[in-house]
Amino acid sequence: MSGLVLKLGPHERVLINGAVIExxxxxxxxxxxxxxxxxxxxxxxxxxxEVNTPVRRVCYIAQLVLTxxxxxxxxxxxxxxxxxQLSQVxxxxxxxxxxxxxxxAVLEDQHYQVLKALRSLLPREERLFAAGRA
Length: 134
Description:
single chain; alpha+beta; 2 domains; 3-stranded antiparallel sheet; 5 helices; 5 strands; 16% strand; globular
């Protein structure tokens, strides 16, 4: 079996190409066979009121493309600018690696991969903000 395999917990919701799908009472696995399908686990979604940091803002743009609420072509420049701005602040090797992956994914219209790479920076951003308040 090829493609993406989603493992869903009971009553877990996932957005697939704009449709919200809710799992039943038991754990299950779904094989997504369509290449480049837009998929977002709703438990991983960033809600508008949570868009309050630089990384979250760029993640949210990628998420809007995945949900079909933003055009990929129009979002491309915003994503690349946001990633560039983040790269001027997050200069450590691991952050740079994730930002490079995100940039490459934007250019390849792989918005789930953009979101995945950027989400990995959220804990680092949180630590930086916490250190700045201390």
